[in-house]
Design a protein that fits this description.
Keywords: Membrane, Transmembrane, Transmembrane helix. The protein is mainly alpha-helical. The protein has one domain. It is 82% helix and 0% strand. Helix 1 runs antiparallel to helix 2 and helix 2 runs antiparallel to helix 3. The protein is elongated and about 60 Å long.
Length: 109
């Protein structure tokens, strides 16, 4: 179990590091004064979008591994099917949340 947990965190870190390197684009320019709230929130949502996508990819990879290691066991196949279903729910929630943000942003501007 510990190996799976370490592998999960290692993959999570590898998927998040490129997104964190883009965070410098959201820093205010020196001497520009106040931070633009709209660009700050947009930057945070953009980073969260990529993190959600990384988690969803990891979820589907884990579900695929569960399917491969089930070897016909009904219990293991049930766990794998639940993992795929919850991965699909995660995709739906992520798309719904991001589209809600874009819709609200377009109404406010």
């Amino acid at each position: 179990m510990n190996k799976k947990l370490v592998l999960f965190f290692a993959l999570s870190i590898l998927l998040v590091l490129p997104v964190l390197s883009l965070a410098i684009a959201f820093a205010p320019q020196p001497g520009s004064g106040a931070v633009n709230i709209q660009s700050l929130i947009s930057g945070i949502i953009s980073i969260l979008w990529w993190i959600f996508l990384g988690i969803i990819v990891i979820m589907f990879i884990i579900a695929g591994i569960l399917f491969l290691t089930a070897q016909g066991s009904e219990d293991q196949l049930g766990k794998a099917k639940k993992a795929v279903i919850w991965g699909g729910v995660g995709v739906f929630v992520a798309i719904l949340g991001y589209s809600a943000f874009i819709t609200i942003q377009s109404f406010l501007l």
